[in-house]
Amino acid sequence: MRKLNRIFFFITIVAVLFSSCSNEKEVKGKNFVKIIESTENGISENSVFTYNQNQLLSSDNSKERIDYTYTDGLITKIVKYNKQNQLSVTLQYTYQEDKLIKVISSDDYVIYYTHQNSETILYEKYKINTQNQEQKVQHGTLFFKNKNLIKIERTFDNVDEGVLSTSKTTYEYDTYNNPYYAILGYSQLLDNASLISKNNVVLTVVETKVVNGGEVITSANLYPTTFKYDADNYPTEQVSESSVSNPNYLKIQYLY
Questions:
Q1: Number of domains observed in the structure of the chain
Q2: Residue range 161-182, pLDDT digits in tens
């Protein structure tokens, strides 16, 4: 009986250790240390990333350096320094109960977020004029499902009177790991669109509609993306003919 008890105790300890290791790997994820972006004309840009455990400290390439500041595990400030014109932009993030409620940019805009529930978030974006007054430029809704941003609906407010201008962006995902999601606090950065999602976008559809009197103008654009993955189900290569955020990049390689 003592021998059986010792065996049972040993198996229990091993199971607990194995479970702890598995959970730790799941929480920490896997961080890329370098990204190689290749454009259609063959120009490549290398970005190097530095971390403190799974906190992103900075990213650096020939054009731009970005520094990140954390407070209690949340990203509260991002400073983007343009090496070409030597100008910088600062983004400050405010949270309430670990949920992002406000983004202020030194580039003269502010975004407010209202969390209706875990799957629906309202936002309003304002431009700050020279008199420090806020003028609404757009508002809309972010829709989430399974920790992925699946749709953004926007209404543009800075249009002529009598004109209605709207857009809808929808995202389709794979079932693999988005490496940005492994960065501590990154999933709360609602102003980063689909990069905050758990999985990787394989198709982006952008639809626009402008109503001006009796005239209606609509458009729809599709942006497919393909990936290659490693043994841990993280992307090693991302290829797309064009991108919503940067239409010049065709291929992105991730090095971990």
A1: 2
A2: 999 999 999 999 999 999 999 9
